[in-house]
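In the current project phase, the collection of sequences with tokenised folds has grown. One resulting record follows, to show the layout:
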Amino acid sequence: MATNVQTRDGGPATSRPASRRSRGEAPFRFLSTAAGVTLLAIMAAIAVFLISEAIPALQANKANFFSELTWEPNASREFGIAALAFGTVLSSLLALIIATPIAVGVALFISHYAPRKLAAPLGYLIDLLAAVPSVVYGLWGVAFLVPLLRTPSQWLNENLGWFPLFAGDGIIGGKTMLAGAIVLAIMILPIIAAISREVFLQAPKMNEEAALALGATRWEMIRMAVLPFGRPGVISAAMLGLGRAMGETIAVALIFPATFEISFQILTPNANSIAANIANGFAEANDIGRGALIASGLVLFIITLLVNMAARFVINRRKEYARAGA
């Protein structure tokens, strides 16, 4: 039944019937629920597939799953999941340490320092970096970055070799953990910068204007009004970038030398990761070998899932940011 209401000029107006307004609510609710259930079903199907394919390799393995995984009768190829997981986590953390300060600085410059005519093109340029294929980053790292890092790596080893990360004997430089971490940092920088920029732009303008009215400089205003508000968003952006770095395949497969060691020495060629090992070994592995690689993929799946769940948890802790559309 129609309802009579008053318009701005005092005349009668007729609203849409309630039955007509609610006609599209049920289909929309059904589609939204179906989308959420489908997403959960896809994730569950991926987990079931990884577990079912990994079980034969785990049953055939006679050694410890984390320290030594053997899938061939003559034990011609052995590696531990722990070594690959260590390389994955270490390279991703190094990339995060390198990328986060730069990304936050870029986001603050675009949101609060750059002129409007410069901020928009610079924001588009940062966003376009995320669209560059990972194989391009990998080729750039192999052809340009790896030779460029030889001299700095030698200097770091000679002058800061007392620190475990820069220690090492023998070959210094080349396809190292440092080179892979720098490439990963460049790849995740657009993700962290884009999310941080949007968070900083959502900071309450009244707080910023109040800080400036009290005599604060622009940096003091950012430190008091922008960074506290955007801290949860920056943390979640960094964790999303961390998950992206852990799952990267082609770029690190081109750079890492495919060794199976647990070492904190980032200047020596002894790096590897789960994703790179799967890409390098899947084609030549037998059935049990593929199951072993899928088992390592299951470990990567769990690590990445935990990282993204932690990021979601950090976002939800700040209600203002969640209401802003996170």
